[in-house]
Amino acid sequence: MEKATIVYGSVTGFTEEVAYALADEIEGKYDVSIIDAIEFEENDLKDADIILLGSSTWGVGQVQMDMLPVNEVIKRMDLKGRKAAVFGTGDSSYKKYAQAVITLEKTLKSSGAEIIQKGYRCDKLWNDEAKAKLKEWASKL
Question: The whole model's pTM is what?
């Protein structure tokens, strides 16, 4: 079974909740490990067939602070042959809604990873509609 590694950064717990819901959705298809960005180490990705990154967006489109070191480590990695996707939370009333998703996708691509699914963006509320959209998104991973 392929291994999926989810790395997420969360300040309020919202992105963490989405990360665990994603893990529940893909268990059975992948052997899933989930890592809080605060505890991330480069070796956490060494056996991952698919890398899933999650971040909220802060300020004027910035990646969540705990994900910044993860982003820097990934910039230095060779991820050729690896699949990847990004999920994020944000507020669509801001001009750079869930910009962290785009930033992390660019980093993964520049390191050679294949983005297999356009990023999932959750807008403000973790409700039934958002959960249904995550379920659909996860089914394509």
Answer: 0.96
